[in-house]
Amino acid sequence: VSKMIFSVKGMTCASCVNRVEKMISKVEGVRSVNVNLAANQAQVEADETIEMSEAIIKAIEKAGYDAKPIDNDDQRKVLFSVKGMTCASCVTRVEKAIAKVEGVQSVNVNLAANQAQVEGEKGILDPEAVIKRIEKIGYEASIINEDEQREESDEQMVETRKLFKDFTVAAVLTTVVLVGSIPHMMHGWGAWVPTFLSNPLFLLVLTSYIQLVPGWRFYKNSYKVLRNGSADMNVLVAMGTSAAWLYSGAMTLFPDQLTAMGFPYQLYYDVTTVITTLILLGRYFEAKAKGQTSTAIKKLM
Predict the structure, then answer these.
(1) pLDDT band at 75 (very low <50, low <70, confident <90, very high)
(2) Which of 16, 32, 33, 201 could staple 45 via S-S, CB 3.0–4.6 A?
(3) Range of the domain at 45
(4) How many domains does the chain contain in total?
(5) Which GO terms describe its molecular function (predicted)?
């Protein structure tokens, strides 16, 4: 079995990718097909015969696209660490950005391992250009080798522990905020709540701490993404929680002025803290799962 890479020109959408994959799969002797729209390439594993490459090219051309083989000897493979990705949208954004770099022939971004494997033409592919392109869209990138992969794993463990610590702190304080918010949410039901717990200024201080300490990661990541003219889940979280937090803070500090202007007296500290805490919990589970998946992948490799 040999691995062959083909340049495929003319693809514009996922439907094109499916069409090319189906046509190649019909060629006798083909074991697997992986078509990358961003890089305009098809990676094929097939029985090693003289006619196989020609048969695959004919199949691609029959589907309506131009194709030609890419010599593996002319390729350079570089592995990058990419930090800051949180979802499939991030993966797509990184792949599209890398594919625009001169000399890049194929891109494979792994969310679980926080890595991007890039193949390109020797003498043309510039790793520094790839790093700059990744950083331009709001992520951190660096070249890694086998010795540095262990260090990457250690950093991931540290980040997982930090997420758990942030979640634990946020969860404890959120519980206090929820108890203190009962008199504001259900009038007549919070007589048992100590007065100092339901004091709006006290709730403002606790909520501000949750937003600016455990939840600071959302603001930091939002800045990185927004300064490059894009948006992701961090921006959504930061905007949503900040709106509730700032409105409640303004209503706490200037209740008479705001109610006189027609704004209803309503505090949303419970909403802000619960959302931040639950998303931190989700991020912790995600980081833990990614760490386990990454370890399993490295063992297989």
Answers:
(1) confident
(2) 32
(3) 2-70
(4) 3
(5) copper ion binding; P-type divalent copper transporter activity
